[in-house]
Design brief:
Blueprint (H helix, E strand, L loop, with lengths): L10 H6 L3 H11 L1 E6 L3 H9 L7 E6 L6 E2 L1 E5 L5 H25 L9 H10 L8 E5 L4 E5 L10 E6 L7 E3 L2 E5 L7 E5 L5 E6 L2 E6 L2 E11 L2 E4 L1 E6 L6
Antiparallel strand pairs: 1-11, 2-4, 3-6, 4-5, 5-15, 6-13, 7-11, 7-15, 8-14, 9-10, 9-13, 12-13
């Protein structure tokens, strides 16, 4: 059962205290797995309020204009708010172990070094030098089409989304949706309600699945179902930069 109590401790303490064995097993099975609480309600409100500080962002995307769905999101500049920087740095070493294990199973290159800063430097050298950390805002009727956050050849296979509002109170609908393309079978879907301050670790592009001949990849996409009422805001943590 997920602990819904308000967290106490630093962001790194809370990320480190996650049951990473259970989370690793769940994400291997389903392509996504929830964390316990990482941010307090006050931290969630403060983070969501950053959306109106336009100088913090390098660009704004109107999803309807680009036919991505409906709603809006903004990419932070590299001058990240402290809580965003701390979250990404705290998650990286834990997700790195999963990423390397997946790579070993699939027999693919694992280019990710021990330090996040070094990996981001590699992204920049490859031409992916734009910040990919996202603050998203949805209103009633908004939704996000199924997609992958892949911006070039340099890809980290896992990312995190954190709920900033209270489902059922601040908004209804707006579940986080994932689909898995299964070999020689119809796709499988899942829907997760993001609790305020809680994270969801999920697959960026695909995940390894056991087969009769060893391991193969299961392509996955994610999106957001239609928000019925209210306003839904989330923080997206991506562990590679954009081109």
């Amino acid at each position: 059962m997920i602990d819904t109590a308000h967290p106490a401790g630093t962001v790194r303490d809370l990320v480190d205290a996650t049951d990473w064995t259970a989370l690793t097993d769940e994400i291997a099975e389903y392509g996504s797995a929830p964390t316990g609480p990482l941010l307090t309600p006050a931290q969630c409100r403060e983070t969501a309020a950053l959306y109106d500080e336009t100088e913090r962002f390098r660009s704004t995307v109107d999803m309807a204009r680009h036919r991505f769905g409906s709603g809006q999101y903004r990419y932070f500049t590299h001058d990240l708010p402290e809580v965003v920087r701390e979250l990404r740095e705290a998650f990286y070493p834990h997700l790195l172990r999963i990423a390397r294990d997946w790579s070993a199973k699939l027999g693919t290159c694992a280019p990710w070094p021990d330090e996040l800063a070094e990996w981001l430097g590699m992204c920049h050298e490859a031409g992916q030098s734009k910040s990919a950390q996202i603050l998203l805002r949805y209103g009633a009727g908004d939704w996000n089409a199924l997609h992958r956050d892949v911006f070039g050849d340099m890809v980290f296979p896992l990312q995190v989304v954190i709920g900033l509002d209270v489902p059922g109170t601040d908004y209804t609908g707006g579940e986080f949706v994932m689909t898995e393309q299964r070999p020689r079978a119809q796709s499988r879907g899942s829907a997760t309600t993001l609790l305020q301050g809680h994270g969801l670790v999920f697959t960026t592009r695909d995940r390894p699945v056991a087969s009769k001949r060893g391991w193969s990849t299961a392509p996955m996409r994610h999106g957001v179902s239609t928000v019925r009422t209210g306003r839904r805001r989330t923080l997206g943590l991506v562990f590679h930069d954009a081109g």
